[in-house]
Write a structure and sequence with these properties.
It is built from 8 helices and 9 strands. It has 204 residues and is an alpha/beta fold. It has a domain of 134 residues: Rossmann fold (3-Layer(aba) Sandwich), CATH 3.40.50. Strand 5 and strand 6 form a beta hairpin.
Amino acid sequence: MAQNEKGKLIIISGPSGVGKSTVISRIMSMRDDVCFSISVTTRKPRKGETEGRDYFFVTPERFSEMVAGNLLLEHAEYVGNSYGTPFEYVECKRNEGYHVVLDIEVNGAAQVRACAPESIMVFILPPGAKELERRLRSRKTDSEEKIQERLRQAKDECAEAHVYDYIVINDDPDMAAKELDSIITAEECRAAERLKYVKEVLIS
């Protein structure tokens, strides 16, 4: 990215268990101009998750206050918990030149797109339904009832993939991250993004 340019807003969606966090981690290790937007959530931390690194964990009451105060770029309920994106955090990072990655579900993605039409939407698909179920079970964090709920939700989410700009199939996290890297680079090179440099050449 050219110096002093505002970073892009990159929306990543996909069903629970598809490996979004792993792909995001890989792309952040590949590029030093990408950062992750930390979401606010009312769900309890999972083992290994850290406040301020993985999520900002808040009470339902505090979440409602943030919604009422227009402090969230988007917010939605997912599998019984509320999630939201802090607007100020995202804009601060973009103005510093970082591409900000949002890991949000499809309803939240639609909210962000409505507020920020320039955002880049990427949907991550599993290689198949059986593999998605295997990944969910291997986490050993959910009950059978919760797993079935997540699988039903996955079908509904995947049905919305057609509204996204790009679809990445996460059969291998490294390959998926490389595809995401290519998407970001291509977006940086759009003619509309580079016309100002053409003008500089013409008047020099």
